[in-house]
Specification:
Shape: globular
Bound molecules: flavin-adenine dinucleotide
Oligomer: single chain
Structural class: alpha/beta
Order of helices and strands: EEEEEEHEEHEEHEHEHH
Mean pLDDT: 90
CATH class of the largest domain: Alpha Beta
Distance between the termini: 27 Å
Number of helices: 6
CATH superfamily of the largest domain: Nucleotide-binding domain of ferredoxin-NADP reductase (FNR) module
CATH topology of the largest domain: Rossmann fold
Strand content: 25-35%
Helix content: 10-25%
Low-confidence stretches: none
CATH architecture of the largest domain: 3-Layer(aba) Sandwich
């Protein structure tokens, strides 16, 4: 079975700053005619910007059948960062097919979402897709974005402690889990996500179907030589009958091997 993702050409039609570290890009053009959303609310695409061959992964914030919206975090440095920080309207980019991994257990009444700024687009889309559920969100972001998350979600904005550090592990440990059935979704720096998975599994004794914890980026390293596409790892894992938990562990391990 081929694990190579199909690619599509798109043109940056609009670019808008949502906050000092977050820029919204609207991609369109005839090359997106063959693009299909999975409908899974944390779906992502690989993005290859002009003059590059490496891709970086971005959540599909929205897809209206013609245009894809991506909300891109601008870091201190980085391949996509440097491109998105300047005027890129009119540029041609390549994106891969969308993949998603969010899987809400049947009968869920609540959702807990935790993440940093890179996870905010997925948390917004997940919350928007589940208006009937009780949704609690913890967002560790440099700039608060009132109005970015749906109004019926209970949101706690947290400032990052500084120096690229994160307090999200402590936040997760202190969460009072709601009664009944629900789902925990989280994304952020990979090493921290591994520690949080262990906490959920060992300390809270959660089954792997009750949560999704994804490593979105790697700290402790300057520009990354090659990002590992989660799509093939995901498809190969599913084909091999692995659980989501096992697949993300494998994805994190493949990123470690790549250092
Ligand atoms: C499934 C998935 C969905 C994602 N969705 C989004 C999204 O919607 N929006 C978004 O902005 N990102 C998203 N990410 C994260 C994004 O792919 C990474 O942050 C990526 O490394 C950014 O690329 P870059 O070229 O700007 O920086 P790189 O060239 O990859 O990295 C340059 C430097 O920046 C540091 N760095 C990278 N990311 C961060 C960070 N988050 N915080 C602090 N330092 C960082 C690196 O450690 C490195 O030192 C997603 C990742 C995955 C796997």
């Amino acid at each position: 079975m081929s694990t190579r993702a199909q690619t599509h050409t798109a043109v940056v039609e609009a670019r808008e700053w949502l906050a000092p570290h977050l820029v919204r890009l609207t991609l369109g053009g005839p090359g997106l005619a063959g693009f299909a959303s999975t409908g899974i609310p944390d779906e992502w695409v690989g993005l290859i910007v002009p003059g590059q061959f490496q891709s970086r992964y971005y959540t599909v914030r929205s897809w209206d059948g013609h245009r894809i919206v991506l909300d891109v975090v601008v870091h201190d440095e980085g391949l996509v960062t440097e491109w998105a920080a300047r005027d890129c309207v009119g540029d041609e980019v390549t994106i891969t097919d969308a993949k998603g991994s969010f899987a809400l257990p049947e009968g869920s009444t609540w959702l807990l979402l935790v993440g940093d700024l890179t996870a905010l687009p997925a948390m917004a889309r997940i919350a928007e897709a589940h208006p009937g559920l009780q949704v609690r969100i913890w967002a560790e972001v440099p700039d608060e974005l009132p109005g970015y998350l749906p109004g019926d979600a209970e949101v706690t904005w947290l400032a990052p402690p500084g120096d690229g550090a994160s307090d999200l592990a402590t936040v997760v440990e202190k969460i009072e889990w709601p009664d009944g059935k629900g789902y925990f979704w989280m994304a952020g720096e990979s090493a921290q996500m591994r520690a949080i998975r262990k906490h959920l599994m060992r300390d809270r004794g959660l089954p792997s179907t009750a949560y999704e914890v994804m490593g979105y980026w790697r700290g402790a390293q300057k520009r990354q030589p090659r990002a590992v596409d989660p799509g093939p790892v995901w498809r190969a894992g599913k084909a091999a009958g692995l659980t989501d938990e096992q697949i993300w562990e494998r994805y994190d391990a493949s990123q470690e091997e790549d250092r």
